[in-house]
Amino acid sequence: MAKLIFKYSTMNSGKTIDLIRTVHNYEENNCKVIVMKPKVDTKAGTNIQTRIGLERKVDILIDENDSIIELLKGKLEDVKCIFIDESQFLKCGQVDELFIITKALDIPVICYGLRTDFKLDSFEGSKRLLEIAETLEEFKTLCYCGDVARYVGRKVNDKYVIEGNIIVIDGTNDVTYVPLCGKHYLENVTKIDLNKVKEDLK
Question: pTM score, two decimals?
Fold first, then answer.
């Protein structure tokens, strides 16, 4: 039976590269796929785009009030896999629909997305995927210190911030995102003095 799969990480880990590579592998073997993403991700318009310039057109955009089952009605004949980019922006019910599709039609669904936002809170879609996806895969990327980065800091005008709207697309409104390890998230974003905490604990 097909599975719902969630591949997650922080920024700059190669999620979209993996998506495009995997889609290419399917299509190179004459296997039909569908690529979707939430409409709120406006970064590349109707495409998905990697940071190194690779692009692939999205077949279907998902609005926040859309039923994915309705969007896919009549479009799944001979489809071998469904791919979702930026799946953290999905609604809980939309993730549930993807799970239902895997079981009703035996078509695997592979979702790519962030686990947490810049405040270390779960996105709605990611939370639900972590709860019900049958396969979880973490992509690794590095903090500037060389340790594994599992968190993301938001910079506005090159300064870390801890407040603001949850969804602000990278590269808009002078916003950039930086992958960080836990230590450097605490030090740079929340401004916690870890040396002081260490002394207080002695």
Answer: 0.90
HSE of 68, CA atoms in CB hemisphere, 13 A:
27
Name the residues annotated as catalytic: 86
Give percent above pLDDT 70 in the chain. 98
| Residues 6+ positions from 102 with CB-CB distance below 8 Å | 1, 2, 3, 4, 108, 109
Classify 46 in phi/psi space as left (phi over 0), alpha (psi -120 to 50) or beta.
alpha
How far, in Å, are 62, 79, 141, 192, 194 from residue 183 at the CA level?
36, 44, 15, 9, 8
Q: How far apart are CA 16 and CA 55, in angstroms?
A: 9
